[in-house]
Amino acid sequence: TPDQAVKEENKDQSLTIYGEVTELIDKVNLGDYVDIGIDAENYQYITIEIKGHFLFDSGDAELIEDAKPIVNKIGDVLKQYSGYKVEVIGHTNSIPQTKAPYYNNYILSTWRALSVATYLAETKNLGWQNVYYEGRADLEKIASDDTEEGRRQNRRVEIRLYNKKNSEN
Fold it and tell me: Of the candidates 50, 73, 94, 135, which lies 20 to 30 Å from 23 by C-alpha distance?
């Protein structure tokens, strides 16, 4: 069927990118800082998930100095896919934010995504025409917020690198 053919094309493209990005991430020694995944439902993109506690102080959205080399190396990997769509998604744990300027987790997660997106678009010259961002607050937890370790895991930034076919849409 046409839908199955599209899914197979997506799968082929995304699996190729997944293998290449995994190799590049290993080559620049980022394995302790990121997890690589793939959109296993539709195969439209691969994910590079950056563990948030390496990027930001708790309750803040400004990249810490130690995080910049990590984001820099990820930007170098993404530059290999010039013209491809890159989506940066910020996540938080469920601890409520009440301090200015991040009055809630939606605002904090959006500003965190914007911080990484700005670095990639401007510092790494990926360009705003290909880089998008959004915050999802604590809606997509990957661990329980009942422990500090779980809350730490939920504070993260996910980068989606879309395959060529889905970068054109």
Answer: 135
Q: Which residue, chain included where needed, has tokens 């991430």?
A: 25
Q: What letter would DSSP give residue 97?
A: P
pLDDT tens profile 122-155: 999 998 999 999 999 999 999 999 998 898 889 8
User: One-letter amino acid identity for 120?
Assistant: L
- Taking the C-alpha atoms of residue 127 and residue 14, their distance in angstroms, rounded to an integer, is 22
Considering only CA atoms, which of 138, 162, 167 is closest in space to residue 14?
162
CB of 88 within 8 A of CB of 111? no
Sheet holding 86-91, edge to edge: 34-38, 45-51, 156-162, 86-91, 131-135
Q: Check: CB of residue 10 under 8 Å from CB of residue 38.
A: no
Residue holding tokens 């690198």? 161
Flag whether pLDDT at 100 surpasses 90.
Answer: no
